[in-house]
Amino acid sequence: MSALPTRRQEAFRYADLAALEALWPLPVQEIRVAAGEQGASAVVLDGANDAAQDIAITLGDGAEYDLRLLNAGSAYGRILVKVTLGKGAKFHLGAAQIAGGEQTAEIVTEVVHAEPDAVSSQIVRSVLGGKATGTYLGRVVVARGAIGTDGEQSIRAMLLDRTATANARPELEIYADDVKCAHGCAVGELDQQSLFYLAQRGLPPADAKKLMLHAFIAEAFVGAAEEEALTEAALNALDAVL
Amino acid sequence: MLKIENLQASVADKPILKGLSLTINAGEIHAIMGPNGAGKSTLGYTLGGRPGYEVTGGTATLDGTDLFELEPHERAAAGLFLGFQYPVEIPGVSFVQFLRESANAQRKARGEAPLSGGEFLKLAKEKAGLLRMDMDMLKRPVNVGFSGGEKKRAEMVQMGILDPKIAILDETDSGLDIDALRICGEGINAIMRKPDKAVLLITHYQRLLDYVKPDFVHVLAGGRIVKSGGPELALELEEHGYEAVAA
Fold first, then answer.
1. Which one of A172, B22, B112, B211 has the fewest CB atoms closer than 10 angstroms to its CB?
2. pLDDT tens, A42-59?
3. Keywords on this record (chain B) (predicted)?
């Protein structure tokens, strides 16, 4: 895939192609986890420059991988993750996107359950302010014969301003019976009732908002090996867009 | 302490409170009773400043300060506590974290020194003990997974920590079993029955008033107080119903 993609390609529908052109072609980072092994990594895009990453993960039978993404700060930040799961493999994604101003942040995932009994879970939390755009396109494919699959996507985006845009599209492609796939997707604003509750206890509105957004973003990094460092980096990014 | 005069308030352009007047002095406990839809919860929310509850006339002052000139968090710092009928669940935010921030935000607004982590935990532990609540529960996210009774006890713990001048408690007794009712009632007495504090209990039933003895009882109907009296009025209501007593 050396030619610059077009917006007709689903995975690039919301991409900033001008920014991408300068970065193209993207080297693919290959991660292979052998059968029964475990691995984990975190990708943090928090520089001011445009950045795009293309990650391909292959998990052998019974292998496990924990991937965390923080996509914040870049004018254009894109992370593409393709995962192929072997029999009984486990994959967890926890991702946070934080964008303000004119920033564009996107995470595109394709998780293929190629063999039976694999488990995948994805949690993506986006906070978008100003005129920023945040996108999550996530496809879960359950191959023929991949019975006993358990695939879950929890996608939530919070808009700080009415001028911000969130695109969220969890997608399932299932070619096997006896699978368990669920996705939840919500784009919204902070709950007014909760904000009033916090205010009634004495928290000024800006502090109440911050407290709730911190909790919202922190969900992406629960249980990560570098949970504290990732959460702190995310909260710093959040404070920059508030 | 709290002086409400001819208060009128609307929700979604529908008038709910239609000229409510009530004066509560320091050291007093008042109970407001009334049928569903009378405007009891609206009174609490309007005084607390909940968005969507629009004051269309009248005044409310707390120790001379116009409440309606203040934002909700400023009303809290001025000493107004609203106990919610349905306390909100806030995932990911722990009680101790948010209460310490809240208490210190209030102290800052009043020009007082903030509580240190240690001081706050000591205070929280003491108040949790009053309500027989385990400190571990306060380390959990706000109200998440709490039973109805636990939520109400947690409201009272918050009241104890924040130490308001006046507490407006909206159906604190709803959803409580007999033991929890007694514990909440004793908690309210321990925290709020003091010469410099006051309480407004909003309730449907006499049962909470067995534990927290009111000095005054008012009947709210159609957005106004239609009858006031002493504690005997609550018993009369319980026996004969709102319609007979308020008619």
1. B112
2. 999 988 788 999 999 999
3. ATP-binding, Nucleotide-binding
